[in-house]
Amino acid sequence: MAARSNKTRLAVLGFLTWGPMSGYDIRKAISQSTRFFWSESYGQIYPVLQQLAREGLARARVARQGRRQRVVYEITPTGRAFLQSWLAEAPEEAPVRNELLLKTFFGRHGIQARLRQHVEALLHRMAAVEQELAGIRSRIEAVDHPDAPYWLLTLRFGELQLDAQLAWCREALRMLDSVVPKEANATGRRGRSSAHVPGDQSPSEPVRKIKLGGQR
User: Which of 78, 88, 119, 143 is deepest in the core (most CB within 10 A)?
Assistant: First the structure.
Protein backbone atom coordinates (compact mmCIF):
# COMPACT_ATOMS: atom_id res chain seq x y z
CA MET A 1 0.00 0.00 0.00
CA ALA A 2 2.84 2.40 0.87
CA ALA A 3 4.57 1.80 -2.47
CA ARG A 4 1.31 2.35 -4.33
CA SER A 5 0.66 5.56 -2.39
CA ASN A 6 4.16 6.81 -3.24
CA LYS A 7 3.53 6.25 -6.95
CA THR A 8 0.19 8.05 -6.62
CA ARG A 9 2.08 11.10 -5.35
CA LEU A 10 4.30 10.99 -8.41
CA ALA A 11 1.42 10.52 -10.82
CA VAL A 12 -0.39 13.50 -9.31
CA LEU A 13 2.79 15.60 -9.49
CA GLY A 14 3.10 14.67 -13.13
CA PHE A 15 -0.38 15.97 -13.90
CA LEU A 16 0.35 19.19 -12.01
CA THR A 17 3.05 19.94 -14.60
CA TRP A 18 0.13 20.68 -16.95
CA GLY A 19 -0.85 23.64 -14.77
CA PRO A 20 -2.94 24.37 -11.66
CA MET A 21 -5.49 21.59 -11.14
CA SER A 22 -8.07 20.51 -8.60
CA GLY A 23 -8.58 16.91 -7.55
CA TYR A 24 -11.54 16.71 -9.92
CA ASP A 25 -9.40 18.07 -12.78
CA ILE A 26 -6.76 15.39 -12.16
CA ARG A 27 -9.32 12.58 -11.99
CA LYS A 28 -10.85 13.77 -15.27
CA ALA A 29 -7.40 13.99 -16.88
CA ILE A 30 -6.61 10.43 -15.81
CA SER A 31 -9.87 9.12 -17.25
CA GLN A 32 -9.03 10.74 -20.60
CA SER A 33 -5.37 9.77 -20.80
CA THR A 34 -3.55 7.30 -18.56
CA ARG A 35 -6.41 5.07 -17.37
CA PHE A 36 -5.46 2.28 -19.78
CA PHE A 37 -2.15 1.79 -18.00
CA TRP A 38 -2.32 3.82 -14.79
CA SER A 39 -5.45 4.73 -12.85
CA GLU A 40 -6.07 6.34 -9.49
CA SER A 41 -9.25 6.35 -7.42
CA TYR A 42 -10.97 9.65 -6.72
CA GLY A 43 -10.59 8.99 -2.98
CA GLN A 44 -6.80 8.77 -3.27
CA ILE A 45 -6.22 12.00 -5.14
CA TYR A 46 -7.41 14.56 -2.57
CA PRO A 47 -5.40 13.17 0.37
CA VAL A 48 -2.32 12.99 -1.85
CA LEU A 49 -2.75 16.61 -2.95
CA GLN A 50 -2.92 17.69 0.68
CA GLN A 51 0.15 15.58 1.47
CA LEU A 52 2.08 17.14 -1.40
CA ALA A 53 1.21 20.59 -0.09
CA ARG A 54 2.42 19.69 3.40
CA GLU A 55 5.70 18.40 1.96
CA GLY A 56 6.25 21.54 -0.08
CA LEU A 57 6.02 19.65 -3.39
CA ALA A 58 2.83 21.50 -4.34
CA ARG A 59 0.97 24.55 -3.09
CA ALA A 60 -2.74 25.18 -2.82
CA ARG A 61 -4.57 28.35 -3.73
CA VAL A 62 -8.17 29.41 -4.13
CA ALA A 63 -9.28 29.99 -7.72
CA ARG A 64 -12.56 31.50 -8.85
CA GLN A 65 -14.63 29.69 -11.47
CA GLY A 66 -17.64 31.79 -12.32
CA ARG A 67 -19.43 32.42 -9.04
CA ARG A 68 -17.78 29.48 -7.34
CA GLN A 69 -14.45 29.19 -5.66
CA ARG A 70 -12.37 26.05 -5.68
CA VAL A 71 -9.00 24.92 -4.40
CA VAL A 72 -6.40 24.17 -7.05
CA TYR A 73 -2.86 22.92 -6.63
CA GLU A 74 0.27 23.77 -8.57
CA ILE A 75 3.65 22.11 -8.56
CA THR A 76 6.52 23.89 -6.79
CA PRO A 77 10.17 23.97 -7.91
CA THR A 78 10.89 21.40 -5.18
CA GLY A 79 8.10 19.22 -6.51
CA ARG A 80 9.39 19.50 -10.07
CA ALA A 81 12.89 18.47 -8.92
CA PHE A 82 11.36 15.54 -7.01
CA LEU A 83 9.48 14.43 -10.12
CA GLN A 84 12.59 14.73 -12.29
CA SER A 85 14.55 12.61 -9.82
CA TRP A 86 11.93 9.86 -10.03
CA LEU A 87 11.85 10.01 -13.83
CA ALA A 88 15.58 9.27 -13.85
CA GLU A 89 15.15 6.08 -11.79
CA ALA A 90 14.70 2.65 -13.37
CA PRO A 91 11.00 1.65 -13.31
CA GLU A 92 9.91 -1.20 -11.07
CA GLU A 93 8.79 -4.39 -12.80
CA ALA A 94 5.14 -5.10 -12.09
CA PRO A 95 4.15 -8.75 -11.55
CA VAL A 96 2.18 -10.23 -14.44
CA ARG A 97 -1.09 -11.95 -13.51
CA ASN A 98 -3.44 -12.84 -16.38
CA GLU A 99 -6.33 -15.09 -15.39
CA LEU A 100 -7.37 -15.80 -18.98
CA LEU A 101 -3.88 -17.10 -19.79
CA LEU A 102 -3.94 -19.20 -16.62
CA LYS A 103 -7.28 -20.70 -17.68
CA THR A 104 -5.89 -21.29 -21.17
CA PHE A 105 -2.77 -23.01 -19.81
CA PHE A 106 -4.96 -25.52 -17.95
CA GLY A 107 -7.70 -25.42 -20.58
CA ARG A 108 -7.61 -29.15 -21.46
CA HIS A 109 -9.24 -29.93 -18.11
CA GLY A 110 -12.18 -27.58 -18.59
CA ILE A 111 -15.08 -27.14 -20.99
CA GLN A 112 -13.65 -26.01 -24.30
CA ALA A 113 -16.78 -24.07 -25.25
CA ARG A 114 -16.42 -21.98 -22.11
CA LEU A 115 -12.77 -21.22 -22.84
CA ARG A 116 -13.80 -20.15 -26.32
CA GLN A 117 -16.38 -17.80 -24.80
CA HIS A 118 -13.71 -16.28 -22.57
CA VAL A 119 -11.51 -15.58 -25.61
CA GLU A 120 -14.43 -14.16 -27.59
CA ALA A 121 -15.27 -11.83 -24.68
CA LEU A 122 -11.70 -10.51 -24.67
CA LEU A 123 -11.83 -10.05 -28.44
CA HIS A 124 -14.98 -7.94 -28.15
CA ARG A 125 -13.52 -5.85 -25.32
CA MET A 126 -10.33 -5.22 -27.26
CA ALA A 127 -12.33 -4.21 -30.34
CA ALA A 128 -14.04 -1.55 -28.21
CA VAL A 129 -10.67 -0.41 -26.82
CA GLU A 130 -9.39 -0.12 -30.38
CA GLN A 131 -12.05 2.50 -31.09
CA GLU A 132 -11.20 4.38 -27.88
CA LEU A 133 -7.50 4.48 -28.70
CA ALA A 134 -8.28 5.78 -32.18
CA GLY A 135 -10.24 8.62 -30.58
CA ILE A 136 -7.39 9.40 -28.19
CA ARG A 137 -4.93 9.54 -31.11
CA SER A 138 -7.18 11.98 -32.96
CA ARG A 139 -7.42 14.26 -29.92
CA ILE A 140 -3.65 14.25 -29.31
CA GLU A 141 -2.84 14.96 -32.94
CA ALA A 142 -5.26 17.89 -32.89
CA VAL A 143 -3.51 19.74 -30.05
CA ASP A 144 -0.31 21.76 -30.02
CA HIS A 145 1.31 20.76 -26.73
CA PRO A 146 5.00 20.15 -25.89
CA ASP A 147 4.07 16.83 -24.24
CA ALA A 148 2.22 15.55 -27.33
CA PRO A 149 5.15 13.50 -28.76
CA TYR A 150 5.46 11.68 -25.43
CA TRP A 151 1.71 11.10 -25.26
CA LEU A 152 1.82 9.59 -28.76
CA LEU A 153 4.78 7.41 -27.82
CA THR A 154 2.86 6.09 -24.81
CA LEU A 155 -0.24 5.57 -26.93
CA ARG A 156 1.77 3.64 -29.52
CA PHE A 157 2.72 1.09 -26.85
CA GLY A 158 -0.97 0.54 -26.17
CA GLU A 159 -1.79 0.27 -29.88
CA LEU A 160 0.88 -2.36 -30.51
CA GLN A 161 -0.10 -4.29 -27.38
CA LEU A 162 -3.72 -4.18 -28.53
CA ASP A 163 -2.76 -5.47 -31.99
CA ALA A 164 -0.96 -8.41 -30.34
CA GLN A 165 -3.97 -9.24 -28.16
CA LEU A 166 -6.36 -9.09 -31.11
CA ALA A 167 -4.07 -11.35 -33.15
CA TRP A 168 -3.79 -13.80 -30.24
CA CYS A 169 -7.56 -13.93 -29.78
CA ARG A 170 -8.17 -14.72 -33.44
CA GLU A 171 -5.44 -17.35 -33.52
CA ALA A 172 -6.70 -18.88 -30.26
CA LEU A 173 -10.23 -19.17 -31.63
CA ARG A 174 -8.94 -20.92 -34.78
CA MET A 175 -6.85 -23.30 -32.68
CA LEU A 176 -9.72 -24.11 -30.33
CA ASP A 177 -12.01 -24.78 -33.28
CA SER A 178 -9.50 -27.32 -34.60
CA VAL A 179 -8.83 -28.94 -31.22
CA VAL A 180 -12.39 -29.41 -29.96
CA PRO A 181 -13.55 -31.89 -32.65
CA LYS A 182 -10.40 -33.99 -32.17
CA GLU A 183 -10.90 -34.07 -28.42
CA ALA A 184 -14.56 -34.96 -28.83
CA ASN A 185 -13.70 -37.88 -31.11
CA ALA A 186 -10.94 -39.08 -28.81
CA THR A 187 -13.27 -38.94 -25.82
CA GLY A 188 -15.93 -40.87 -27.66
CA ARG A 189 -13.56 -43.70 -28.54
CA ARG A 190 -11.57 -44.01 -25.35
CA GLY A 191 -13.51 -42.12 -22.69
CA ARG A 192 -10.71 -39.58 -22.30
CA SER A 193 -8.52 -37.31 -24.40
CA SER A 194 -5.18 -38.74 -25.46
CA ALA A 195 -3.61 -35.34 -26.09
CA HIS A 196 -0.27 -34.91 -24.38
CA VAL A 197 0.51 -31.65 -22.60
CA PRO A 198 3.52 -30.59 -20.56
CA GLY A 199 3.38 -32.33 -17.21
CA ASP A 200 0.85 -35.01 -18.29
CA GLN A 201 1.76 -38.36 -16.79
CA SER A 202 0.28 -41.64 -15.60
CA PRO A 203 0.14 -42.37 -11.82
CA SER A 204 3.07 -44.73 -12.18
CA GLU A 205 5.37 -42.22 -13.84
CA PRO A 206 7.73 -40.20 -11.67
CA VAL A 207 7.10 -36.50 -11.45
CA ARG A 208 9.40 -34.66 -13.86
CA LYS A 209 10.30 -31.01 -13.73
CA ILE A 210 9.92 -29.33 -17.09
CA LYS A 211 10.43 -25.81 -18.36
CA LEU A 212 8.76 -24.03 -21.22
CA GLY A 213 10.88 -23.70 -24.32
CA GLY A 214 12.24 -27.24 -24.16
CA GLN A 215 14.79 -26.56 -21.39
CA ARG A 216 15.17 -29.16 -18.65
Answer: 119
